[in-house]
Amino acid sequence: MNLIKVSVIVVIGLLSFASADVSHVVQNDTTLLPVTDVCLGCICEAASECDRSLKCSGDVCGLFRITWAYWSDSGKPTQQGETADSPNAYSNCVNEPFCAARAIQGYMRRFGQDCNGDGRIDCYDYARVHKFGGYGCRGELEYKYQTRFENCIKTFTSN
């Protein structure tokens, strides 16, 4: 099994486990959770190769490499028992995979759009919105990000 598949499976497993905890509260509705677990895993792979050891560096944090503005625009999700106004709420959330995934879901509910002009909003669009933000997702992806993302998607969509 290749390294991409293993790291993404680990992230998907973690995120699926977290999703199970709220299944009684959140219905399986793409307007509430627009990004699938596989898509989250592939965004993770593209952003950092799902490196769980990554913390804050410069203006990005965590394995999804999320900025404070992104987290804020996503609705400022927090760890259990913490308020969004807590001084460490941002870094505590985005450095933890479950909370970071909630930030991505919130961001995509707000900014998800058809970035590639194919008439639908799917994981390819979410990967672009994640990288470029909600106001400029039509740019060219950097080679490394695009290659990691596409290889991941191919790994999980091929038989």
From TrEMBL:
GO terms (BP aspect): defense response to bacterium; killing of cells of another organism
- Record's keyword annotation contains Cell cycle: no
Any one GO molecular-function label of the UniProt entry:
lysozyme activity
Q: Which reaction does it catalyse?
A: Hydrolysis of (1->4)-beta-linkages between N-acetylmuramic acid and N-acetyl-D-glucosamine residues in a peptidoglycan and between N-acetyl-D-glucosamine residues in chitodextrins
Pfam families, A to Z:
Destabilase (PF05497)
Give the keywords, sorted.
Answer: Antimicrobial, Bacteriolytic enzyme, Disulfide bond, Glycosidase, Hydrolase, Signal
Task: Specify the domain of life of the species encoding this protein.
Answer: Eukaryota
Q: What class of enzyme is it?
A: hydrolase
EC number(s) on file: 3.2.1.17
Keyword hit for Cell membrane: no
Here the disulfide bonds are: 39-123, 44-50, 56-61, 93-99
The protein's matches in Gene3D superfamilies, at most eight in alphabetical order, are given as: 1.10.530.10
Signal peptide region: 1-20
Q: What is this protein called?
A: lysozyme
- Could you tell me which species this protein originates from? Chironomus riparius
